[in-house]
Design brief:
Nucleotidyltransferase, domain 5, Cell_div_FtsA, Cell division protein FtsA, single chain, SHS2_FtsA, about 35% helix, six-stranded mixed β-sheet, Dna Ligase, domain 1
Length: about 425
């Protein structure tokens, strides 16, 4: 599609094993996973998964040169990515040439478009579906933005909606609704530039909220309507699934690291100490003993032999609570403005590193007026203990993505025919393509 940013990934073949490498470039961490996708029988809760992911290489390290998903220092970002990818390559015993990469940068957003084409009473063929999706693409996104995902969410035949797959059916007019997730082209180009410096090709770009939803939601939730909130380091993303499809995605540039900076400023401690206080003692829900519980703090610039200061745990809660409420309120207001609060039903699933904060589900229930549960990545075997938490949902979702990417529309890549349309090489190439 626009600037060929949509997936160039070949879907995994049913019954065949496949290797996949994914790279999660976050604001606080970078993670690379190399996995083997092995065919399996579909489960009851995760029906879309035709393969089981077995991790053979894992690399993990702090992020550098990236802020809110945007590359801010190309040298630092390259160094951080090389370290993590090298770690995963050594563990797997192979060298990577291409990876799946997540996208949070570029003011991620989504819109729904509709289009229709005439069938003249003929059967619906694959070319008709491509025609109608091309019609959507031709008038969808502004020039400065590129499409990351184009997901058909429903077909209509002669005005009859709710058709899942119209292929083979007969009608006069074929319509389609497509959820288009887009981001700013230049932000993604910088991401591509960094990876080229690491000698890596981008096989596919996956929107972070979509990946988190794929990892954390069970099929029944996605069918009935659900919103997946991913609390990242410097961004919070939301995706809404309904009738089994992604219908909305959005991102705001506030995340868990902003909580850490709030604590560092208010208590006059270093950022590293603030992160430790948030992880060990942080809560957004006041407790009965909070006024009595004292936490030791080491002010910035204090001498080594100086006795540490003390603050009540309730002070920490009072610093963190307003920021969490700000994030939840911003998400709620955006979803209400687009009508997605009604589409997502009565359920929110929270994932990402920031979602493990004590008391967050209770505060989210009050602010969003919905049922809330914490989500963790499901159905991925072989991840080390450190990577089984909610902070690694995006990575797990990108391992699921090759199994569902066949639902998307991608711009056909032009191929040069060396000997004309019916030459010997063209015929052999066609036979190879259709046979294997």
């Amino acid at each position: 599609m626009t600037d060929a940013m949509t997936s160039r990934l070949r879907p995994v073949q049913p019954g065949k094993a496949s290797l996949v490498a994914v790279l999660d470039i976050g604001s606080t961490k970078i993670c690379c996973v190399i996995a083997r996708l092995v065919p399996q029988s579909e489960g009851k809760a995760l029906r879309a998964r035709s393969h089981r992911a077995e991790v053979i290489g894992f690399g993990y390290g702090p992020s550098s040169g990236v802020k809110s998903g945007v590359v801010t220092d190309i040298e630092k970002a390259e160094h951080a990515i090389r370290n993590v990818v090298g770690m995963a390559e050594r563990a797997a015993g192979l060298t990577l040439e291409s990876v799946l990469v997540n996208v949070t940068a570029g003011r991620l957003g989504s819109e729904t478009f509709s289009a229709a084409v005439s069938l003249d009473g003929q059967e619906v063929e694959k070319t008709d579906i491509v025609r109608v999706l091309k019609a959507v693409n031709s008038r969808s996104v502004r020039p400065e933005r590129s499409i990351v995902h184009a997901l058909p969410i429903g077909y209509a035949l002669d005005g009859q909606k709710g058709i899942r797959d119209p292929k083979g059916m007969v009608g006069e007019k074929l319509g389609v609704d497509v959820a288009v997730v887009s981001a700013e082209t230049l932000a993604m180009r910088n991401l591509e530039l960094v990876l080229h410096r690491c000698h890596l090709q981008i096989e596919a770009l996956v929107a972070t909220p979509y990946a988190s939803g794929l990892a954390s939601l069970v099929d029944d939730e996605a069918q009935l309507g659900v919103a997946c909130l991913d609390f990242g380091g410097a961004t919070t993303t939301v995706s809404v699934f309904n009738d089994g499809h992604l219908v909305y995605a959005d991102a705001i540039a506030i995340g868990g690291h902003h909580l850490t900076l709030d604590i560092a400023r208010q208590l006059s401690v270093s950022v590293a100490d603030a992160e430790r206080l948030k992880t060990l003692y942080g809560s957004v829900l006041p407790g009965q003993a909070d006024e009595r519980d004292m936490i030791p703090i080491q002010p910035v610039g204090a001498a080594l032999d100086e006795a540490p200061g003390q603050v009540a745990r309730s002070v920490l809660t009072r610093i963190m609570r307003p920021r969490i409420e700000e994030i939840l309120t911003a998400i709620r207001d955006r979803m209400q403005a687009t009508g997605m609060m009604d589409v997502c039903g009565r359920r929110f699933v929270m994932t990402g590193g920031g979602s493990e904060l004590t008391g967050l589900p209770e505060v989210a229930r009050r602010t969003l007026a919905r049922n809330v549960r914490n989500g963790r990545p499901m159905g991925i075997a072989g991840l080390p203990e450190i990577a089984k938490g909610a902070a690694f949902s995006t990575v797990a979702g990108m391992l699921v993505y090759p199994q569902v990417c066949s639902q998307e529309y991608t711009e056909p890549r032009g191929t040069r025919k060396l000997t004309g349309t019916d030459g010997y090489i063209a015929r052999v190439g066609s036979w190879l393509r259709h046979s294997f």
